[in-house]
Amino acid sequence: MSNHFEDDVITKWLTGTGEDRDMELTADFAFVEPTERWEAPAGSVVNGASIPSGLWSIVGSPFVGDYRRAAVIHDVYYGAHQGKARKEVDEMFRLAMLSDGVSGKKTQLIYAGVRVGGGAAWDAADLATRATVEPVVDWSEFEAWFESEAAALSKEDLDDAIEARFGPVD
Q: What are the φ and ψ backbone dihedral angles of 30, each rounded to 5 degrees?
């Protein structure tokens, strides 16, 4: 069976201090690969795609776009890790976006952005901290690099290009 999502993302907004970006899943949700099941259990707290604000103009903001369901699973694993390495979680995110119909180029751009800028969010202790992390990346430079050198690369070549341009990302 091919990669697919099971169930719908059902959430409730959590209100409090700050931007009120957090949502709690009120039902289980999963992304399933032939050899792996990625679960986002009810009660998990997510805050939308962790897209750096510098990329919002080309990718979209945290709650819009075909990548939203993939972002929910990605958010859960970035918070709890659940025995997974960051690169595994980012690769699942890439596959989940493709499974949800995100274009190849947009998937590659988001994947590259997560690989380059996601380390600080991965290391953050909690969701509130992850939501405020802005990696030290010049996103206009990143976008120019991606368009001129990386957009047409295979996933494997893209990983190599990211490491060559930005250094080790794990």
A: -150, 155
